[in-house]
């Protein structure tokens, strides 16, 4: 009996420790400077993705905020979308194959930022969308390149509103980052 009880205590301890170490969303998601002050590793990751792909940090943040509210394990439940970037399985597999980052995880912010950079780079090359254009980049991100080309978003008022929100986040984050000099 004592051994079972001790085993139960150990298992509960691991569960509590696991929950305590799970990444939490930033406390001030409206403030890019506060996000990067609280999570300096995110700043490094976003900067690295910006250098690699040319996608501004503020656009990366805006897309990830809209997709997951900065929750590492976000899931809509109705698709295979998962993690910070809400990338579906097929697109995530394409990213890992195309970039050689086979161990990349949707639950790691650095990998999510790199994914967003990669995807927006593709959108620029395939569709001619500026990497600074949060509105159109988000439409292509959400609908896929084929859906964007077909204009499937035009029949979705809610998606156009979401893309405007992403664009506004990106503009606000950009202004904040210039003020606090975290670029």
Structural overview:
By secondary structure, this protein is mainly α. 67% of the residues lie in helices and 0% in strands. The chain has helices at residues 2-20, 32-38, 40-53, 57-68, 89-99, 109-127, 134-150, 157-180. The longest helix has 24 residues, at 157-180. It is globular and about 40 Å long.
Short description:
This protein is mainly alpha-helical and 183 residues long. It has helices spanning 2-20, 32-38, 40-53, 57-68, 89-99, 109-127, 134-150, 157-180.
Q: Secondary-structure map with pairings?
A:
Elements: H1 2-20, H2 32-38, H3 40-53, H4 57-68, H5 89-99, H6 109-127, H7 134-150, H8 157-180
Helix pairs in contact: 2-3, 3-6, 4-6, 4-8, 6-7, 7-8
Q: Would you list the SSEs in sequence order as H and E? A: HHHHHHHH
Query: What is the residue-averaged pLDDT?
Result: 92
Tally of individual helices: 8
Low-confidence stretches: 11-18
N- to C-terminal distance? 59 Å
Radius of gyration: 18 Å
How does the helix and strand content classify structurally? mainly alpha
Overall 3D shape: globular
Task: Please give the share of residues in helix.
Answer: 55-70%
Largest sheet composition: none
């Amino acid at each position: 009996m004592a051994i079972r009880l001790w085993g139960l205590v150990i298992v509960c301890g691991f569960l509590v420790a696991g929950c305590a170490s799970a990444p939490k969303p930033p406390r001030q998601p409206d403030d890019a400077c506060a996000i990067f002050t609280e999570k300096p590793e995110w700043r490094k990751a976003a900067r690295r993705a910006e250098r690699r792909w040319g996608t501004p940090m503020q656009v990366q943040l805006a897309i990830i905020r809209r997709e997951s509210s900065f929750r590492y394990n976000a899931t809509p439940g109705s698709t295979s979308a998962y993690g910070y970037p809400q990338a579906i399985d097929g697109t995530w597999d394409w990213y890992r194959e195309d970039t050689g980052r086979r161990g990349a995880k949707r639950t790691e912010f650095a990998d999510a930022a790199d994914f967003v950079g990669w995807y927006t780079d593709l959108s620029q090359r395939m569709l001619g969308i500026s990497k600074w254009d949060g509105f159109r980049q988000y439409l292509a991100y959400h609908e896929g390149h084929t859906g964007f080309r077909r204009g499937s978003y035009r029949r979705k008022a809610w998606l156009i509103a979401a893309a405007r929100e992403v664009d506004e986040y990106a503009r606000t984050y950009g202004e904040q980052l210039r003020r606090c000099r975290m670029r």
